[in-house]
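dumping this here before i forget
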Amino acid sequence: MTEFREKRILVTGASSGIGRACVLQLLSSGAHVFVVGRNGAALATLGLPSNQIYVADLTDEAGVKAIVVRLKSEPGSLDGCVLAAGIHTFRPLILETYVDIRRPWETNTQSCLGFLAHLLKARLLARGGSVVLFSSAAARKAGAGAVSYASSKGAIESATYALALELASQRIRVNAVSAGIVRTPMSEGFMSKLTAEQRASLEARHPMGLGEPDDVAGPVLFLLSNAARWVTGVVLPVDGGYSIA
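structure:
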């Protein structure tokens, strides 16, 4: 996708997993990428200049404001934004405290939308740009133990529809990817809590098998690209058939 040459794209959650895969594909396509993540050492291995690396926890609004100030000092606006930062929690609601319930909401929903709000206030997103959010197949096909996580991702889907209309006048497209189980450090943490039988059952519910980060990064790049210029307000399942099985 040579059309990304000279395009300026910001990716959060770039330290590992799907976010990192998106960064690598964008770089190979010629994009000028700004990366945000909590693991500075992992971000450094991407080989980007220091002005394109932002080490921050997006649940900290002061840190978000500092990122925006730095971005404003860079020439040009952002042509795209991939908000991939997130966490997975897995626990029956009866065992959760207020703090447990708040945690996925703060990371998956509040920090995502709050960061985007600051980018919009600073007019950092170019007219005609593209925003890609991250839902999860769990938002619609969740199981026991996923109440807090699934609800935080369901909120992202609702936000996708509303934001697509809100930003249409600026020709900014807003879409979301709803991924199934992808082999990442985060999913391995979740899967390690399952019995061998539970793990095999979950894998069997993905007709095309479990995914790899690059399997999701490709559709993300499509949503960022001009090929999707008439696509907005869509939650795209990228789940190996999990949502229809």
